[in-house]
Amino acid sequence: MSSATAIDSVLTELQRLGYEVSAVDVNSRATVRSNQVVMALRFGGRVDGAADTTVATLDVEIDVGGDLGSDRLRRWRITRTFSVDHQCVRAIRIDAVFTLCGDISSSFVQREGGACLAMMQLLVADAKETLHGLRVSKCPTQASGPVVHVDVKVVGDVAAGRSGLIRADGAVPEMTSEARAIRLVICDELASMVLPELLTLGAAGVVTARSQPRLPHPQATAERGALIINSQ
Predict the structure, then answer these.
(1) CA distance 222 to 45
(2) What is the pTM assigned to this prediction?
(3) Which of 25, 31, 174, 218 has an alpha carbon 20 to 30 Å from 100's alpha carbon atom?
């Protein structure tokens, strides 16, 4: 399979799964080196609508440096909105920006994609555990609550990452029970559907959660638990 077919198959499969994919202009130089994947998830900061029509946005940034040398830089916006059955949130919107520097082979997609998925699953579980440990308040100092961050970097078969909560101040993190429930729903959807569909990209296309790729376990290091980062 050629490099062009590898990326084209990934994008085509995402469209088949219900994602909208559109190319966007690239006005910056590549910031990711070859043979690596950098991925960031952000959620909890963009929640819109009334109680019975609440839509929570999951922001995703994926920067890939391909294994096939090239200075070509491409970028796509990948979006999808799907319903969830929960009283605090009715839908989740995925808003992803995917940047590719160079080209990718099918083996790169399978190897680095599998390592990224394994680390993301670990860190999302940690984020969920952290959320369960937060103090619930009827009148929190920051009404919307902290934003959940999950960051992963994969270079070859080595994956590293961290999960945590980011606040605009240094106060003790707290939120309403409804705000926490929304974040927990997103964690559940990430673990059960979004990550398997978005990240398990094998040579034959997207690999679902029921058919995980058979890859060696990556050497992984992660900053886990209740990590609170005060933004500057």
Answers:
(1) 23
(2) 0.80
(3) 218
Residue 198 near residue 138, CB atoms below 8 Å: no
Report residue 188 as tokens: 């559940």
Please name the amino acid found at residue 94.
I
Q: List the one residue out of 78, 120, 71 whose CA is nearest residue 98.
A: 78
Encode the chain (232 residues) as per-residue pLDDT tens digits.
444 458 888 888 889 889 999 999 887 665 677 888 999 999 988 888 765 678 999 999 999 988 887 778 899 999 999 999 888 888 999 999 999 988 888 888 888 887 888 899 999 999 999 998 887 877 655 556 778 999 999 987 788 999 988 765 555 567 788 888 899 999 999 998 888 776 655 534 443 333 333 334 344 444 444 333 333 3
- Give 29: exposed, middle or buried? Use CB within 10 Å, 0-12, 13-18, 19+: exposed
The span from the CA of 61 to the CA of 141, in Å, is 29
